[in-house]
Write a structure and sequence with these properties.
Layout (H helix, E strand, L loop, with lengths): L1 H12 L9 E6 L10 E4 L2 E4 L5 E4 L6 E5 L6 E4 L5 E4 L6 H4 L1 E4 L2 E4 L7 E5 L1 H4 L17 E4 L9 E4 L11 E4 L2 E3 L10 E7 L2 H4 L10 E6 L7 E13 L9 H14 L17 H5 L5 E12 L3 E13 L6 E16 L2 E14 L6 H5 L28 H6 L5 E19 L2 E20 L3 E4 L4 E4 L7 E24 L2 E24 L28 E22 L3 E12 L8 E12 L12 E15 L12 E9 L2 E8 L10 E14 L4 E13 L2 E5 L4 E5 L2 E16 L4 E11 L1 E6 L7 E3 L2 E3 L7 E4 L2 E4 L3 H5 L14 E3 L14 E4 L5 E11 L2 E11 L2 E4 L47 E3 L2 E12 L2 H5 L5 E15 L10 E2 L2 E2 L1 E2 L7 E10 L1
Length: 995
């Protein structure tokens, strides 16, 4: 590591200056990104810009350089000996001719009416995020990404709100194949991501389109180029925003006061428990690293394009003994056999070693007065009266059980296609994609001793007296076939593209798992991974062996069509249709239709706009359509399985009876989402400013709901959820002179979510403190409103009586919400909304000569967090938040922190006491980068070299008391802060070189 840092600093200090023998510079587009492939000519000399837009050419100062590229206006500029920066202006219509990837093909942006945001490779590749989607956080309006600090764990991703109670994540389409995530991708292998948000873009995906779609395009070789690229970074993790907990002395004072409030004597064993332990520090990994290494090779000719990439990631957790390892490869080869026939094959591979993840919950709860280890080197048990029954020694969990769970995950995706141009403008493309993935693991539960200080005894940790082994294996396979005809034709002022296709998707899953324990009184199963199998002979007791399995398969057959039409570049119409048939529904209701219609008008193409100079582009657009959502809590909801029911006696035999798990409903269908939007796109001030605005509305109907009435259970289509809001995005890019340029960009999204209905009036679904109920946002927090604390018995007598339990001065004073003059369960109400009112992000970037400094910010406003730790929600005695030092200790001492009395359940009811403001602003990323000049590189074997210093999540401005204000979860239970895992700050050093 020291050698790496020394080398890194040496590179920064290397001189980079002109010798006068070469003219060098950089060619940028209007957004400030380098333009590859631009031609630079000076007399008889010529050059071409590299992938970052850099060029070097033999010329003299004052010679005229001519710079050109298709789609941009050519420029002529005198050569200078200082580094030149040239910005090319897009030629007329170039912005609208930009090609974006859409479902089952690509299209010019000018021909689209929907909301599609393209994220370039540069936004993804140089961030220390093992999962590439994390790097997009805050970059796209309407895209919500809630991170987890746990290595290898997926973030919570939602596009334009929560539309269903069973699924939130969007569909990922990686080079044409459907995927549930992209953690198997190497960020350096990604060319771009397209985020599809509106009906016009999504209807072509049918039953998978309701949650939005993210299309990922992997890199391919560029024609006429052979390159080898290597990029590497090393990041150092830091634990930040640590919750404030009481120390040993403070804990003793509060605990004895609590005992006094309960009528108990002071704690009698402080002579045995007199430590001052910081349990968070005890289990934290102070040397956590994130290491990434990526190598790629590409070679392109007019007939063949080949790309090969390798990636390696090692990501340490913030808790000791956590390490995530990820290996990826990507192979892509395309061959132009004839002018009309092209074939290609690609393969993505992924293998990961998953960490044995834990969390910080126990370290937040464990009392600080216990030493982790006693004088004899044995782990101490927590005090019998202070959490021993609920919490194990946090250090013992981390150290004594380290590396006792070995899990790994692999995925391989193959895509083969053939494309034939039948006649001019008419192409047929057939593709076959297959995915094979598996996860497997085996683990071990050790038995070891801990010391019980109160009784001076040794006992088994957690009361576990038998070692045991677990083992599992899951296999998932997917086969996808696409057959599409695409016809593109323009005549006169008319331009249209027609798509018609057929696709089939087959998926199947098989999983088995089991456990086995040692013989009672027998020898322990060895703590050695070579023995961690279910048939561990001779240690495993066969009578304790238990195994279970799970399996399912399903298929979907679809027909699809799309029309993209524009007249004279002014009037644009998009139409999509898809008919999906699913094996998971009954035959009578198997097929469903989905469609969309969009229109746009580019006003700046009209004659009456030709003399104005304000707008470079002004386009209004709108779309309407029906999308689908096929997710449910189980597979084949229309075909209930059997479960054990009442038994019957026949003679001397007891025969179990089997009944349906729930009532069959052959009329079930997938949820439908009615989606519409309207918006504008603008470019102003010679395209230096870009602005987009949209209003959207997504209403889920026929909500797939499981109804449990006790005596009767069934699935039905009933219920409605609405999401609506506004999206804004803007950017400004400018070149002050040839040496200095800058850019500013930002986006904001407002979102209002409301459950319109759920089955029948009054029907509600609970998940912890979260509720699904009509008239409130999905996943709202439900409980009592705290007005303050009872200050005296006179205060109690003057207040509405409560039937919620025994209470006294210093306890919560709950609000009489329904005004009936008493406090009952009917006074529960909505006490918080986990969905932000506004989500936003903005970025700043400035480049001076070869140095670039950039900042990325992201935040949310108007949401609440449910604090599910340190709030006395259990009867066990845990450590206290330091806020509890301000507890009520007599009339007037506090009107918010209740008296210390964990023996009472009155203050443990879900209430606004647990609610915290979830708004925050986070500095997501700071990067300082240096691009070495072309002349210096010409003396080496390198085409380009970039070095950078990156700081991720260094500062957060928030109001919560936990590690992080970000908290994902399920569709109807999210925004709960369990105190489990922080989001680290990461400082990384990196380099990217091409040769």
């Amino acid at each position: 590591m020291r050698n790496f840092i020394i080398s890194f600093l040496a590179l920064i200090l290397l001189p980079a200056y002109m010798t006068g023998q070469e003219i060098k510079g950089k060619v940028l587009d209007p957004t400030g990104l380098g333009i590859p492939g631009a031609f630079v000519v000076a007399g008889n000399a010529s050059a071409e810009t590299d992938i970052d837009g850099n060029f070097s050419i033999k010329a003299k100062e004052g010679d005229i350089l001519k710079i050109s590229l298709v789609g941009f206006e050519a420029v002529s500029i005198p050569a200078t000996l200082t580094a030149m920066t040239v910005t090319l202006k897009e030629s007329e219509d170039t912005a609208l001719k930009e090609v974006v990837v859409i479902g089952y093909g690509s299209a010019k942006k000018r021909d689209l009416t929907g909301s599609i945001v393209k994220v370039q490779a540069k936004e993804i590749a140089d961030k220390p995020n093992p999962n590439p989607i994390v790097s997009v956080q805050g970059k796209v309006a309407g895209l919500s990404i809630v991170n987890s600090g746990k290595p290898g764990e997926d973030p919570d991703v939602r596009i334009r709100g929560t539309v269903s109670r069973y699924q939130t994540k969007p569909l990922y389409v990686v080079d044409g194949i459907f995927a549930d995530d992209i953690k198997f991708m190497n960020a350096s292998d990604i060319e771009s991501m397209e985020v599809l948000k509106d009906a016009s873009s999504l209807a072509i995906f049918g039953v998978r389109g309701a949650n939005g779609v993210i299309i990922v395009t992997s890199k391919k070789a560029k024609e006429g180029k052979s390159t080898v690229n290597f990029n590497s970074s090393v990041g150092f993790k830091t634990l930040v925003d640590i919750p404030s907990l009481t120390n040993g002395a403070q804990f003793k004072a509060l605990y004895d006061e609590q005992r006094a409030n309960q009528g108990l004597a002071p704690y009698a064993h402080y002579d045995k428990f007199n430590a001052d332990t910081d349990w968070i520090e005890e289990i934290s990994n102070d040397n956590a690293l994130v290491i990434t290494n990526n190598l790629s090779f590409s070679n392109g000719t007019d007939k063949n394009k080949f790309y090969f990439g390798l990636g390696h990631v090692e990501d340490d957790g913030l808790i000791e003994n956590e390490k995530y390892k990820k290996f990826t490869f990507n192979v892509n080869n395309q061959t132009q056999i004839t002018e009309s026939i092209k074939i290609g094959v690609s393969m993505n591979g992924y293998n990961s070693s998953l960490p044995q993840l834990r969390n910080f919950e126990s370290s937040l709860r464990a009392t600080p007065i216990v030493s982790p280890i006693n004088a004899n080197g044995m782990y101490n048990q927590l005090p019998l009266e202070i959490g021993a029954a609920q919490i194990g020694n946090p250090l013992a969990e981390v150290e004594a059980k380290r590396f006792t769970q070995l899990n790994e995950e692999s995925k391989y995706i193959i895509n083969a296609f053939a494309e034939i141009e039948i006649i001019d403008g008419l192409k047929f493309k057939g593709s076959y994609q297959t995915e094979t993935s598996y996860s497997k693991g085996r683990g071990y539960t050790p038995v070891f001793d801990v010391y019980v200080s109160e009784t001076d005894e040794v006992t088994q940790y957690g009361g576990n007296t038998l070692t045991n082994v677990n083992q599992f294996k899951n296999d998932f396979n997917k086969k996808q076939q696409d057959y599409n005809f695409t016809y593109n034709k323009d005549f006169g002022n008319h331009d249209f593209t027609l798509l018609a296709g057929y696709t089939r998707l087959e998926e199947n899953f098989e999983g088995v798992s089991g456990t086995v324990s040692q013989y009672v009184g027998g020898e322990q199963i060895p703590n050695n991974k070579r023995w961690w199998y279910l048939n561990v002979y001779p240690y495993g007791d066969p009578t304790t062996r238990f195994a279970s399995s799970d399996q399912w398969d399903r298929s979907t057959v679809s027909y699809l069509a799309r029309l993209l039409y524009n007249y004279d570049g002014k009037y644009i119409i998009n139409g999509s249709f898809r008919r999906d048939g699913s094996s998971e529904l009954s035959e009578s209701n198997r097929w469903q239709n989905f469609w969309s219609l969009g229109a746009a008008w580019e006003i700046t193409k009209e004659d009456f706009m030709q003399d104005q100079k304000f707008f470079d582009l002004l386009k209004i657009k709108g779309s309407y359509g029906i999308l689908g959502n096929q997710y449910s809590s189980i597979h084949y909801p229309a075909y209930p399985a059997y479960t054990t029911g009442s038994s019957a006696v026949f003679g001397e035999s007891i025969v179990p009876a089997y009944v349906l798990a729930y009532r069959n409903n052959p009329d079930l269908q997938w949820e439908t989402v009615t989606s519409y939007e309207g918006g504008i796109e603008m470019k102003l001030f010679e395209s230096r400013m870009n602005f987009e605005f949209a209003y959207f509305n997504k209403t889920t109907k026929d909500l797939l709901t499981f109804v449990d009435l006790g005596s009767e259970k069934f699935y039905t289509n009933a219920g409605e959820i609405e999401n609506q809001g506004f999206e804004f995005s803007a950017s400004w890019n400018d070149d002050i002179n040839e040496n200095f340029s800058y850019s500013i960009s930002g986006n904001a999204t407002t979102l209002k979510n409301e459950v319109i209905s759920v089955y029948e009036p009054g029907f509600q679904v609970f998940e912890g403190p979260s509720i699904l109920t009509a008239g409130a946002p999905i996943g709202s927090f439900y409980g009592y409103v705290v007005e303050g604390l009872y200050q005296s018995y006179a205060d109690i007598l003057a207040s509405p009586p409560s039937s919620l339990g025994d209470y006294a001065p210093g306890d919560f004073k709950y609000s009489d919400i329904n005004g009936d003059g008493k406090i009952t369960t009917d006074d529960r109400t909505i006490i918080g909304n986990p969905t932000p009112d506004v989500s936003y992000g903005f970025s700043l970037s400035a480049t001076y000569k070869h140095v670039t400094l950039s900042f990325d910010f992201q935040g949310v406003y108007g949401n609440e967090i449910y604090r599910d730790w340190g709030n006395g929600s259990t009867f066990a005695v845990f450590n206290y938040r330091t806020e509890r030092l301000d507890r009520w200790a007599g009339a007037g001492t506090s009107n918010w922190e209740p008296r210390l009395n964990d023996g009472s359940g009155y203050n443990k009811l879900p209430s606004t006491y647990m609610i915290e403001d979830g708004s925050y602003l986070r500095l997501r990323n700071i990067q300082l980068a240096y691009d070495f000049d072309k002349e210096f590189l010409d003396k080496t074997f390198l085409q380009s070299l970039r070095i950078y210093l990156n700081a991720q999540n260094p500062f957060t401005w928030a109001y919560n008391s936990g590690f992080t204000p970000e908290a994902g979860g399920t569709p109807i239970s999210f925004g709960k802060d369990t105190g489990g895992y922080p989001l680290p700050a990461i400082t990384s050093f990196g380099l990217n070189l091409t040769f």
